[in-house]
Each structure stands twice: as C-alpha cells, then as structure tokens.
Amino acid sequence: MKIRNIAIIAHVDHGKTKLTDALLRQTGAVEEGVSMDSNVLEQERGITIYSKNASLFYKGTKINIVDTPGHADFGSEVERVLRSIDSVLLVVDAQEGPMPQTKFVLKKSLELGLKPIVVINKIDKPAARPEWAREKVLELFMDLGANEKQLNFPVVYTIAKEGIAKINLLDKSKDLTPLLEVILEEVPEASSEELNQKSLRVQPFNLGYDNFMGRLAIGRIYEGVIKAGSDVFIKNISGLPAQAGKTRPGRVTKIFTFEGLKRKEVLEAVAGDIVMIAGLPDIYIGETICVDPSQDALPTINIDEPTISLNFLVNNSPFAGREGKLVTSRQIKERLERELEVNVGLKIDFSPGDYFKVSGRGELHIAVLLENMRREGYELQVSKPQVILKEENGIKLEPFEEVIIDIPNEMMGTVIEKMAKRKGVMISINPEQNHTRIIFEAPTRGVLGYRGELVMDTKGEGIIYSRVIGFRPFAGDINKQALGSMVSMANGKALGFSLYNLQKRGTLYIGAGTEVYDGMVIGNTAKGNDMSVNPTKGKQLTNMRSKASDEAITLTPPLELTLERGLEIINNDEYLEVMPKSIRLRKQ
Ligand SMILES: Nc1nc2c(ncn2[C@@H]2O[C@H](COP(=O)(O)OP(=O)(O)OP(=O)(O)O)[C@@H](O)[C@H]2O)c(=O)[nH]1
Ligand SMILES: [Mg+2]
Q1: Atom of ligand 1 nearest to the CA of 158
Q2: Of 70, 123, 195, 359, which cross-links 12 as Cys (Cβ 3.0–4.6 Å)?
C-alpha cells in the first residue's frame, strides 16, 4: 500500500476543517454533510478543539490527514502532530493573509524540515486578494529562514467551502483534483517494502480513550509492521519521570487504521501508516513502541508545560445541587482522572484533598474542560486562574506571551498605555489601511483579563491574539485596575426597580427576576471597590405602589456571564460556580 501523511495547519478560521471535509467528500471517504468538527462543542463554537485523524484514497494511494486546531491555546498539540507527518497544507485566508498563528505553525514546520504546500483559501470572498496573500506568505517564509527547497513551495488557490481548487486563478475548476494532484507530487511517500522489512518502531503523538479499551495511542509506524496480539517493548527516553530512561513490556491487543473519519480494526498495519493502538494502558506521547528492546528509541516529542492553574472544588453555594447530578468530590476527582487519560497538556494535583489543583495551557484549555463537565451533568466551583511561577537558578520565572493586537488607528494610545501598565513591551507597530497591528511581549499575568477589556474599549472592533512563548524572569508587580464586585446581601428575586438604580453604578450580570443569594456577585462596579447591595429591594411602599410603574423601567441588557468571561473577571476572593445551566460568581 502507498501512503502519504499530511497535516492541515493555519490560523484560526482560515478554513482547515472545511478543506479537509471537502477532500474527504470528493474522494468518497465520507458522506455529504459529515464534518471533522464532530464534537458538540466544536459545532457550537465553530472552531476545532481537538486535532483529528482521517484518511482518503486517491489514485490508489492512502492519504492520512490530520486536521489541527487553529486557536493558539492548542498550539502545542499542532506541534506534536507536525512531528509525525511528512508535509503540511498551510491554509491562508486570501483576504486576511498570514496571521499570527500562520507564522507559528509555519515556523514549526520549517524547523522540522517540512516543505509546505501553500493553500490560498477563500478566493471567493469579495475582498479577497490572493496574489497579495501569496506575496505575504513568501515574505513570511523568507523572514522565518526557509531554505531554498522550502521557498520553492507550490501554491494552490481554493474555495474550501465549495470544494474547488486551482493552480492558476484564471483556471476553470469544478473540484479539488488540482490539490490532490499536488499532494501526490509533493508529499514524500511514507511507505515502502524496505521500511516494512525493518524492526518495528511506532511513536504515539496523540492519545485517545475508549470506555472498553481504555487508553489508546495514536501514532505513526516509522518502520516495520505492527500486529494485533503481539508483545512489544515501550522505550521512554524522557517524558514521565517515573519511566524515564526505562524500557517496559506491553502487549498490543487491537490495532485500528483510519478510514474516512472512522476507525477500522485491522490485524496488522504497515510502515508509514498512522494507527490507533489499544492494550498499552500507560503509553505516553513520544515513547517508542518496538519489538526488539535493543533498538534505539525515536527522538522524543516534548509536551509544553502548563502556564496557568486554578482550583476545582465541590460547590458549596446556597444553590449547590440545584442543577448538577454529579456533584461530590469523588465524582469530580474520577472525572478529572479520566480527563488526564487524553488531555495531554493538562496536569492535576489531587493531593490537597478538599480541592484539586488543575494546570493547563490557557484559559480556553481550561474552559473547554469545564464546559464538557457541565454538559455531562457536573456541578462545581473554581477559583481564579493564576499563572504558574517557577524558579531556575534562583531566578523567579513566569510565562510570557506574544500578544498581537489589531485595532482602529485612533485606539492606539489607549492600548499602548494599558499594555504598558500590564508590563507589555512593544515589539513592533504596523499601520495598515484603517487599523494598526501592534505586537507586544507581556507576562501572561498581565494579559489575563485584557481580552474583555480590549473588546469593550474598542466597542468590539479590536482583535487580540496571544500565544505563550516561554518562561522569563518575573516582570514585577502589575497594578491592573481591578473591577470591584457588586455583591448581593439578600436572598430572593432581583427586582427591576433596584437593578435600575444599581446599573448606574456599574455593569450588571443579571436581569430582573434572577434568583440571588447573600454573597452572590451580581455585577461589577466601575469604581474598583466591592459594594454590598440589595437587588431584591422593591420600590418604597406607598399607597400608590403599582405594578405597572415597576414594569415601565427599562434596564440595560446585562452582561451575561459565560465560562470564559467568568474566568476572566473573577477576583481573588471569589469562586466561579459552574452548573449545567448557570454560571455565577460568588464571594468565597
Ligand atoms: N467565503 C468562504 N468561506 C470559507 C471558505 N472556507 C471556509 N470558509 C468559512 O470560514 C469559516 C471557518 O472555516 P473552518 O473550516 O471551520 O476553519 P478552521 O481553519 O478549521 O478553523 P479552526 O479549526 O477553528 O482553526 C467557516 O465559517 C467557513 O464556512 C471559503 O473557501 N470561502
Ligand atoms: Mg477547524
């Protein structure tokens, strides 16, 4: 069997998944209407959260495709995938051109020696400027130090949404055949009889989980043939401290290859293919599965360290247990243990007992876990996310991020001033037509909470991307102008009359009729200090009291608390209450 392995990479929303879906559809690998973004959360949010494997057959060759997430919080996952494939489709929006995450994933690909195929997508957009985008991509290749071979990248123009690809913009085309042809021409063959003859070496780059089979390893067979039921050795050259440098035995019980979006059980799989392996309960990313223990391990795959952490604990608010079915500490612990089976970037400290310390790669990484849990019927509360500090050679270090902000020109002053307060150092400033792009490097500590503020400051026109770039010396105290909380001192239903008065003093998170309790945060105060309020207070009782006058009040729509917004605005002495239907903030 002939095999090629590619990954699809891009900035968020540039069309990776649409392109993958269209490739699978055209080659008959999936039916009409089936999408790689199969997870409910992915469909709701319209973004890819988990990288996924699929395959298609074209002219007798099996093409394994890994669709990757574009959001920066999942960047380290993309990096792992890149280690295991032979070429990438670098998708670039024909209107936006290369964006921050384009640069990151391209840089990683070039460093690994991959020769990308550039796909200029969305050429159907009215404001598309494909030639300009291509020029910009070339500049980016040069900036990133691409070699001669890499600079000679092929370009394909696409409308992923419609499943159309062309080599020249003026070509007539009705499908993706031109792209498939380029893939066959450009992507090195992964399989050969010679490789099959070698002793087995497989390396997992992702993990999966199945209720019956337990942990699954998704990996590439570099050499040899893997057989179901065979005894193997697992070599670990870094990775988990408990196993580092050791070789342990294991048994492969089942093997699956990818066919379309489905997995297909097989008795054996050959060199070059990407497989899912069951039977190795403690297998980990970057280890080497082999049959001959004297074989060398493959170079390991690093896992990026977490940058933020927060505590998960049982909900003990007055409303505890109202919505959740899974609420006890033991239930939460079991769920978190299961998460560790597949969530590679996550770390959890179970030792404190009355809470669990969960560490992850960013707010979205944590928010996705919480969102999944509440949908499954869990109820819990979490503390404010804090950055993780380390010490190396006596120096205190903290995570830093590259922050890219696109704003209307007139907002420049405000943004620069605010980022400076958050210890952001300006790296570059680039005026474009009516907006300006400013790049900063800032401690994660300073970036936390800025997203929402920027959106408000720019009335939704500002866009911010950030990406962890590593640990650096502690940047010193940051005086963020924290928002104060408006805290209810009463139990009962919020009344329009009192909310009408309170909304003059800050931003409310609740509307009339919302049930509140003593200690619940119902809004924030512009002044910065906490404020105790009674949102249940009706109008002064007079003989004239009429229901009608209460209803005539017009309230500003509340700022609805979502998980991510809650994690962003929560204060140190508060908890975010996460329930299947409600999200609330409360004083600890
Ligand atoms: N006009 C136009 N829109 C497109 C095209 N391809 C994709 N889109 C739209 O762009 C949006 C994002 O597409 P996706 O395929 O989900 O993008 P993605 O790169 O997978 O996004 P992430 O996985 O979240 O990083 C969707 O609304 C698509 O309908 C295209 O060729 N033309
Ligand atoms: Mg996607």
Answers
A1: 31
A2: 70
Cβ neighbourhood burial of 244 (10 Å; 0-12, 13-18, 19+)? exposed
Q: Is the CB of 398 under 6 A from ligand 1?
A: no
pLDDT tens-digit series, residues 242-269? 666 788 999 999 999 999 999 999 999 9
Instruction: Give, using CA atoms, the residue closest to atom 32 of ligand 1.
Output: 122
Residue 124, ligand 1, Cβ within 6 A:
yes
Q: Which runs of E-coded beta strand occur in 474-526?
A: 484-488, 492-493, 506-508, 515-516, 520-525
Whether the CB-CB separation of 209 and 199 falls below 8 Å is answered with no
CA nearest ligand 1 atom 29, residue: 161
The residue contributing the CA closest to ligand 1 atom 7 is 15
Q: Return all residues near 474 (Cβ < 8 A) that are at least 6 apart.
A: 389, 395, 396, 397, 398, 443
Helices (H) and strands (E) in the chain, counts: 16, 35
Instruction: Find, among 255, 261, 196, 226, the residue nearest to 65 by Cα.
Output: 261
Q: Is the pLDDT of residue 458 over 90?
A: no
Integer Cα distance of 3 and 188 in angstroms: 9
Neighbours of 449 (CB within 10 A): 19
Residue of 36, 73, 161 with the most ligand 1 atoms within 8 Å of its CB, for mutation: 161
Tokens 């669709």, residue?
A: 67
